[in-house]
Design a protein that fits this description.
The radius of gyration is 20 Å and the shape is globular. With 280 residues, it is of the alpha/beta class. Helix 3 runs parallel beside helix 5, helix 6 packs parallel to helix 7 and helix 11 runs antiparallel to helix 12.
Length: 280
C-alpha cells in the first residue's frame, strides 16, 4: 500500500508552506520524509524544523508508520541552521539573543524527538550534511550514505563552534573522531564517516534508495511493540553505569516477555511458522 500521507497524518496535514519544503510518502509501513528546499541547501530554518517536527509528531501517533526515513532532494542533505535567517536578527535590541535561544531550543527538541520517537529513524544521505545537518544524521538511529556523501561540522571556520551538533556526534563517534571533526571543521567522505561510526552503510549512489528501502523493510517487518521497547531501552541504558544498565534492562526483558507479540513470536519460532504481530 502506498499513500502520500497516512490517514492519521491527513487529519493534521502540514500547512502549504511546510508541505513545499518537506515531502511525505508512506508505503508498507515506511514513512519517507524528504527535505526539499534545495535552493537553501535544505537548511534547518524555522519552517523546515517546524515541518519536520510536525511530521515526526504525526508519525509517533500513527500506527501505520513503523519506520521513518529522512532523505533529501538536491545536492545537500542539509547545510544546518539558516545563517541568513539567524543573522537578520542581529539588529534586534538584544542583538538576537532571545531569537537565537528560541531557535536552539527548537532544534534541540527536534533532535531529541528523533531519538525518542518510538519508531526507528534512518537517515539517507547522498550529498553534503554539515553542522546541524550532520547533527540530524547523527541523531537518527541508522544512516545509509551514497559514495558521494560528505559530512562536516565546520563552525570553527566562521567562529561558531558546533556545540549542539557535538552532543549527537559525541554519542555516536569515538571521542577523538568527534573532536577531530569539531576542531578542524574538515569535510570527511562517506568511507571515513563509515569508519568513524557516523553511518552504517555506504553504497553506490545508484543503489542508495534501494538499499535504504531494504533496510527499512527489514525493520518494518518486526513487531512494532518490540521495536518501541528496544529503542527506548537502548538510549536509556547507554547513559547508565554497568550495574544500573543490567538492572534496568533485566526489568525491560521481563516486561517484554509479557507482551503479546513476544508470546506470539516465541510461539511462532517453536512452531516454525511466521509470526502474526499485533503491535502490543
Amino acid at each position: 500500500m502506498s499513500i502520500s500521507v497516512s490517514s492519521a497524518a491527513a487529519a493534521a496535514a502540514p500547512a502549504p508552506a511546510a508541505a513545499a519544503i518537506l515531502r511525505e510518502h508512506l508505503a508498507d509501513g515506511v514513512l519517507r520524509l524528504t527535505l526539499d528546499h534545495a535552493e537553501r541547501r535544505n537548511a534547518l530554518s524555522e519552517a523546515m524544523m517546524a515541518a519536520l517536527q510536525a511530521a515526526l509528531d504525526r508519525a509517533a501517533a500513527d500506527p501505520a508508520v513503523r519506520v521513518v526515513v529522512i532523505g533529501h532532494a538536491g545536492p545537500a542533505f542539509s547545510a544546518g541552521h539558516d545563517l541568513k535567517e539567524l543573522t537578520a536578527r542581529r539588529t534586534d535590541a538584544d542583538r538576537g539573543r532571545a531569537y537565537f535561544e528560541t531557535v536552539m531550543k527548537t532544534c534541540a527538541r527536534l533532535m531529541t524527538s528523533v531519538v525518542r520517537l518510538p519508531k526507528p529513524v534512518i537517515a539517507e544521505i547522498s550529498g553534503l550534511a554539515t553542522a546541524a545537518g550532520c547533527q540530524l544524521v547523527a541523531s537518527c538511529d541508522l544512516a545509509v550514505a551514497g559514495e558521494g556523501a560528505r559530512f562536516a561540522t565546520p563552525g570553527v571556520h566562521i567562529g561558531l563552534f558546533c556545540s549542539t551538533p557535538m552532543v549527537a556526534l559525541s554519542r555516536n563517534l569515538a571521542p577523538k573522531h568527534a573532536m577531530e571533526m569539531l576542531l578542524t571543521g574538515e569535510t570527511v567522505d562517506a568511507a571515513t564517516a563509515l569508519r568513524f561510526g557516523l553511518v552504517n552503510r555506504v553504497v553506490p549512489a545508484a543503489e542508495l534508495s534501494a538499499e535504504t528501502g531494504r533496510l527499512a523493510a527489514t525493520i518494518a517487518a518486526k513487531s512494532p511493540a518490540t521495536l518501541k521497547i528496544g529503542k527506548e531501552a537502548f538510549y536509556r541504558q547507554v547513559e547508565m553505569d554497568l550495574d544500573a544498565a543490567y538492572a534496568y534492562t533485566a526489568g525491560v526483558m521481563v516486561d517484554n516477555m509479557l507482551i503479546r507479540d513476544a508470546e506470539e513470536g516465541i510461539g511462532a519460532f517453536i512452531e516454525k511458522r511466521p509470526p502474526q504481530w499485533r503491535g502490543a
